[in-house]
């Protein structure tokens, strides 16, 4: 089905199953340890070997010698393979650097090879015996150092610079001018499940169990890197312990497992150790951002300028900091540009809400500063500059933009009117402040297919290569099929993450939920037709409810349709470009923080997000997405920072003790409210995703709350105690 | 991980007999991490977990003797500790996580090693790991490291919480030697400063010596405080911590964590307590040699001392 017209009424609108707060259907498997993650497929793999990655320990240069003799003779070692033994064609789709380096080293901890042994411990022990000689070269590791040479550059095929009207003239002429610079640190996805793969060959066919968000892409990556036909590759990733973008591509574990298994003729498992994840894989790069906003005296924006600078490997993408600025606030004159400088740090790439997660921090602090300069309430300024058309493409109207309602509803719920002047609210030793920010993230849509089958026992089976990265895909797909076919969720079996199933949108860019359920919707429409035909019912009028199919005064059981065997159907959704509509998800974040007036420690006290994203397919899994994203925003605002050691060209804090993500005690109270709306222009489900929306703006709201608490403005995240202390009066 | 032999012992004597050239393992929460990362590669492990030494007994002097194998969780939950040595319970509970404290032992906690990123990356120079290789932390990322008591050889901080409380309590560490005999090392001397000669020594233990107990003197009275400052609310090492016992007359004792290779305290600083945080900090940080990244710790420590003294003052009022 090509989706190109607004959706009329569908069975989904009845909301008997979809839109209900179903607990995760895969929850019991996960809580009892029976969900098989990539590293856990031991059954049926006799002779499984373990591979341990040999990492480069320089950032840039050449391997002049690599001596594996000692490692090869260590107890339990089966083989040691290095780049000298491999012939890998290119790299994974979507990645820039090679998964296995050598002789050229492109970044610290780039894989150079793999030690293969009978046990994990033997492989790990022997990896330390591999002796590598390098000829190191000087590299570029500082964003400040390359900023002057950075070039305008677009991310992921998008434009580098966009202009509307005459920004410079309008800014110059504006009654109020605001011009500030902001910085955000580099982030690691730091998901709990490390990258992991098990590879097994049968003849020339590869089966790869791996932790991956995009099955079809990874299948074609593996085929092309290994130079075999795609039909010879099967990729399985049914359960994934978080990805945050980093599992959009195949990584070193996947290719090394495949090569090691091919060489040894035995299945091989490669798990990436925690300490390698930070430098071996991808990160969200550090950014510098400049915001120039010119307004009328009443606060109406006349000129909006947002420029970003980031660094990446040659051929990589810049962090697309200005993406959302193209659409979030009104203003007839606009300049948005991303710049990229060449750095020899590990590759920067798409991490949850790429661009927007950090772009929104700068924009939302700027809006707070601007409101103060104008003497306006920060909500008033945002409301005044709302736009129902996309300000960068004024011919397009937002299909479903309720930002103003989110802000106003949130203000009411949060008690925004109780906010006091900066630095004036004190509770004992605590300085207390509130902050607000807009959340905006585009609602991307992506083609997606699924198969659905009515089994002879009346159960429904759904199959698609869609992934569940902890998000709830299993559950919303079960709900979709249940709604369409008139059965409760516990009669639906959803099977995901297998390249043998129809190709889906995969998980990324918060498009997964709406796209994959839409593809399944189409499959279910087709299955309903098949079932109606088998039952000789009028397919147009047939209603599916309570395990029955009703049409006129005829009532059949679903079981009647499978007397001769299962009925199955496939379906796929495709999306064209809309000339009339822009698609987005919107929200408002509210945060209250306490700042310890002695120590400068910032502790979040409560958080609220009010979100609008069309139909919410499942309010509990959507809530989990949003509060998880808010938690990630707390990390970005208060602690997460990959620290570059410019002498070695690496992120030096490469474990979870030195790279601090929030813990439970940091998150005392979170609320998430969804506006009750549907977007018939978006897709058949009238729904959009929320997994990235929840992250956009959070850091800005926290920074604004810190300012409100202390009266001291910080334009750099994370805001750590030494930054806070610089603005606090001496307590002694 | 390198292959190693493993022996289980059932008494301190057996441990001492088996201990030559071996590493003792107690809770394993620190040692095993280091073995996996090959920061240390012992050939032999002697497991102390069945060697007794796991009770807390009163001493003739009116204090307590804490067995080396008493788990951190049990120690922090002991009613005598809570009543008379609350700073110790608070310090322990401010560290690690419930799961780790259930495993971690009194001796192991005292012997935990530094949290320096360069100690943890075996590709980079570290005098502690590889004597003579150099110290990558100098001019490196030193935000969490020590500001005083360091040398050109090493900038390591002692990351522990428990030891800081033991320092204000004036505990003694009872150790037994392989050849027989025991001695008590004052906690103030247990952790070594790096100094100017290699190897960088961390502990006052001689090879083969076994910690058998930690001895607390009779209760000091006063009100007990442990204030730990960190980037997140839990499960993080201290940027700075303050252990204090403050008496009703405003005198007391203070020790700092996170700022030096050992819990940092001095008699001069204690004497300055009635004169306020700045006076205390001035005494504690005399001769400090902070790096650019961690100079803030001095201000932060001063302010944290102020917070504790203010709280104590309020409690007395
Ligand atoms: C994730 C994490 C977070 C942590 N956070 C904190 C924190 O916030 N604050 C804090 O203070 N600590 C923290 N720790 C450290 C923790 O306190 C220590 O790991 C623990 O106390 C070590 O005790 P153990 O019994 O497990 O020691 P082990 O790992 O068994 O041994 C540690 C060392 O002590 C030696 N040893 C053990 N017993 C004896 C003995 N009887 N005689 C001589 N030598 C002996 C061992 O040979 C070894 O060298 C954290 C640890 C982890 C893993």
Automatic annotation (TrEMBL), chain A:
Domain of life: Bacteria
Aldehyde oxidase/xanthine dehydrogenase a/b hammerhead domain ranges (all copies): 32-138
Transmembrane feature ranges: none
Pfam families assigned: Ald_Xan_dh_C, MoCoBD_1, MoCoBD_2
SUPFAM superfamilies: CO dehydrogenase molybdoprotein N-domain-like, Molybdenum cofactor-binding domain
GO molecular function, one term: oxidoreductase activity
Gene3D superfamilies: Aldehyde oxidase/xanthine dehydrogenase, a/b hammerhead (3.90.1170.50), Aldehyde oxidase/xanthine dehydrogenase, molybdopterin binding domain (3.30.365.10)
InterPro entries in UniProt: Ald_Oxase/Xan_DH_a/b (IPR000674), Ald_Oxase/Xan_DH_a/b_sf (IPR036856), Ald_Oxase/xanthine_DH-like (IPR016208), AldOxase/xan_DH_MoCoBD1 (IPR008274), AldOxase/xan_DH_MoCoBD2 (IPR046867), AldOxase/xan_DH_Mopterin-bd_sf (IPR037165)
Protein name: Oxidoreductase
Lineage: Bacteria, Pseudomonadati, Pseudomonadota, Alphaproteobacteria, Sphingomonadales
Gene: yagR
TrEMBL record, chain B:
Pfam family, any one: FAD_binding_5
One function term, GO molecular function aspect: oxidoreductase activity
Record-annotated FAD-binding PCMH-type domain positions: 1-221
Domain of life: Bacteria
Key words, A-Z: FAD, Flavoprotein
Name under which the protein is recorded: Xanthine dehydrogenase
